[in-house]
Amino acid sequence: MPATARSPEVGEPLGPLPRGFAAFIRPELPGLLNEIRAEVTRAYPVYGRLLNGPNGDTIRQGVEQALLGFVDRVADPGKSSELRDELLRRFGRVEAYEGRDLGTLQGAYRLGARIALRRAKSIGRQHNLSPALVLSFADALFAYVEELEAVSREGYAEVRERAVSEVSALRRQLLHLIMAAPPLPQTAVSELCEAAAWELPRTCTLVAFRPPVPDRIQASLDDDVLTDLDIPQPHLLVPGDLTPQRLAMLRTALADTRAALGLTVPLAQAADSVRWARRVLQLVDDGVVPDAPLVACEDHLTTLWLLSDPALVDHLAARELAPLDGLPASRRDRLVETLRVHVSTRAPAEQVGEMLGVHAQTVRYRLRNLDTYLGDRLADPDHRFALEAALRSLHLRGHDDHAG
C-alpha cells in the first residue's frame, strides 16, 4: 500500500509515494550526502567552519539523519524521528546562539532539497519512473523540508526565550571548568559547551585585569569571549589563535584599563596563561616591567622565567657567589656588577667599561680579581650559565647596587 507523506503543520495529504520508492533512493544516500555537504558549505561558508570544528560530527550526523528520515518515512511512515528531531533542534539552537536568523539555515535546507530533487530526476530517468511519481516526490520532499524547518525553529525559539543572564551564567561556569586544576573530564566541558552554544577551541589566550573592571568592556568584546570580571582577580578568555583582528578588538575594549595579555596556549593550559598574565601585572606593580594599557607576556618571557621563583634564585646566587662573601660590601658589589655585565654581554673590557662608566683597565683588574676568587667557575659552562641567570634575576629585582 503506498505511503502518504503529510505535513505536521497543514495535515493534508501531499500525494502517495510507493514504499518501494525508498529502495531506489537509499543506495544514493552516501553520494547525495557528500554532494549536499559540498554545495551547502560552498554557498554558506559558515557551515564549512562548523563542520571543521569540534561539533562537526554532530552536524554531519544531523544532516545524515535528515536524509535518512525522509527515506524511512517513505518506507515506513510510522517510524520514529526522535533522534533526527533532537539533532535538528540543536541546529536551531546553534543559529540562535551565533546570532543568525533562521534564513541561513532555511536556505541550506532548501538547497539540499533542490540537490536531492536533481538526484531523484536522474533516478527517475534511470529506472523509467513516471513523471507523476517524480512530481509527487518533489511535493513530499519540500513538505518534508518545511517539517525540518519547523523542528529547527523549536530549538531556535527555545534559546531566544532563554534569558541572556542564563547564557552568561553558563559561559561563566564553562570558564570556571576550563580554568579548573586539575581539568575536569572532557565530557563535562563538552556538555556545557553545547548548553552554552560555545565552540570548544584548540587554543586560547587569557587576559588578566586589575580590578575594578569598567562595565563598558563587556559590550566591546566579541560574543564568544568568556569573561569573569566581577571577582577579585578578573580575567577573560579569547578562544582560538590571537589574530590581528582579535588583538585589535582587545586593544579597543581594554583602552585605559590595566590588563596583561597571557600567552596563546592549548586550552588545557589556560590556567598557565592567566597565571603568567597575573605575574606580569605584579611585575608592573613592582616596577620591573614598564606599565602600559595592555602588557603582553610575550614581550617579557625571559623576565617571567628569571623571576618565577625568587627564593630559589637567591639560593642559586648565594651558592655561585659564595667565594666573594668575605669581601667588604662595596668591593663585592662592584665585582658582582662587573661580573653581571661581563657574563651577560661577552663584550670586551672597553665596552664593559663604557657600560659601567669606568676605565677598561679597571674592568680588567676586576676580572682578574674575579678569576682569583671564582676560579674554575667562570670556565665551567654550567656554573657560568647559573651565574648569568642568577645575576640577571637579581638585577631585574634591584638586588644589586649598580656600583661603578
Fold and architecture overview:
This protein is an alpha+beta fold and 404 residues long. It is 62% helix and 9% strand. The longest helix has 31 residues, at 131-161. The model is unreliable at 1-14 and 400-404 (pLDDT under 50). Residues 335-392 form the PucR C-terminal helix-turn-helix domain. It comes from Streptomyces poonensis. Residues 17-179 form the PucR-like N-terminal domain.
| Share of β-strand residues | 5-15%
Mean pLDDT: 83
For the secondary structure, the number of strands is 7
The coarse overall form would be elongated
What is the total number of structural domains? 3
Helix coverage percent of residues?
55-70%
CATH class of the largest domain, anyone? Mainly Alpha
Order of helices and strands: EEHHHHHHHHHEHEEHEHEHHHHHH
Report the biggest beta sheet as strand number plus sense, adding barrel if it closes. Answer: 5 strands, mixed
- Quote the CATH topology of the largest domain: Globin-like
* Largest sheet, spatial ordering of strands: 4-5-3-6-7
Query: What class, by secondary structure content?
Result: alpha+beta
CATH-defined architecture of the largest domain: Orthogonal Bundle
Protein name: Regulatory protein
Organism: Streptomyces poonensis
Domain PucR-like N-terminal: 17-179
InterPro entries: CdaR-like_regulators (IPR051448), PucR-like_N (IPR058663), PucR_C-HTH_dom (IPR025736), PucR_C-HTH_sf (IPR042070)
